[in-house]
Write a structure and sequence with these properties.
CATH class of the largest domain: Alpha Beta
Number of helices: 14
Strand content: 15-25%
CATH topology of the largest domain: Rossmann fold
Structural class: alpha+beta
Number of strands: 22
Shape: elongated
Oligomer: single chain
Radius of gyration: 32 Å
Helix content: 40-55%
CATH architecture of the largest domain: 3-Layer(aba) Sandwich
Length: 461
Amino acid sequence: MIQKVHAFIERHQLVPENSIVVVGVSGGPDSLALLHFFANLQKEKSIKVIAAHVDHMLRGKQSEEDLLFVEEFCKQLHIPCESIQINVKSYQTEHKVSTQVAARKCRYAFFEKVMEKYQAGTLALGHHGDDQIETILMRLVRGSSPIGYAGIQVKRPFNKGTIIRPFLCVTKDSLLDYCKKYNLQPRNDPSNEKDDYTRNRLRHHVLPYLKKENNNVHQRFQHFSEKLTEDEALLEELSIQKMNKVIKRKEPKCVVIDSAEFKTVPMPLQRRGIQLILNYLYKDISPDLSSIHIDNLLSLLANDYPSGSLHFPNGLRIVRSYNNCEFTFSEKEAEPYCYRISDEGKVCIPNGYILQSEIAQEYPSKLRGPHIFIIDPDTVELPLEVRTRKSGDKMALKGMNGTKKVKDIFIDEKIPRELRETWPIVTDAKGNILWLPLLKKSSLEAANSSKRKYIILKYKH
């Protein structure tokens, strides 16, 4: 076993010489064997080893005894030990996540602190070949991202350093034999014996059948993981190149893509492109996010219907409107407004524009464009107002007979749904719609005449 692990470490270049390595230690056989292995590796690699243990306070006195056991074991090996007790149940209640997710987040947050304290570049964890099989099977059953199907990564970025898993090349039985050989006497977590979790059910009922077929099945799964990871690295690079042409706007909590351009991207890269966006927005990807969410999003983008929306975990909203698709964590809904427009003054519109009113003593013949509206005060009832749309809004369009619904104007002009809620509508005191800035003017706009007074409305940034 030791030779296999040494070869695995060298092949993947997991442990740089003269480095500082934090080893996550629960007290179980996997992590205890890992710490013992690294204690012996110190001289060979000229490395410094630090142990890190978390008592999740889920098993009362038993887990507290695990903490004391790990601390004593580290003393025997002359290895510094950083340990902590964290009330995972409180974290779970506060953040409304599962026990497993809460425990993992608390554990990894502590590992980060230990790495920063010792300026360590490597975190070593005791996941082994059987864990790899269980993880890949779990993700195949539940659904995952393309890279998720590769299972546990041998090496991946973490904090300002790297997580490594040197035991992925060996089985649980090998580690138990290692513990017996060196009389390590690890602690056992009774929750591992229960069938309450999917992983445990796979471990107890599926894994034995796979090992009957091939006793080295863990090697086949690890080979699959590594090859899939290599393929994913190439496909991700291609996805980045394609998505650079698709993304129209990118902010910390909002990404907007061109859905028409996105449809031209090959399907294998579409999935990975969506995953890139989600990884960017979530930072730490939500455990509640599944392949079903991705499938629903791809359907939304492929649909011929011009608009639609989806709600993803942790408040992420995805809104498609014509050729725009917005991913946003903005929870604030657009609020209706109504402001009076004075003869000379400015109104700040919530969408960031300004509506400015001026008095002219003659017809401003040089002022033209969709951002200008000219009013004859004698033909409309003052004061003027600017407001958001209402159900049933209609206006008499300039140069046309009859009226047209504002809703239909927005659709014809392909105004995104989220912008319609705050688009300004200028009316007179009777409620007649005079102007939709930048879009349409009513038949009530003033024509050139001999009058000596006009109101000029300007819509600008």
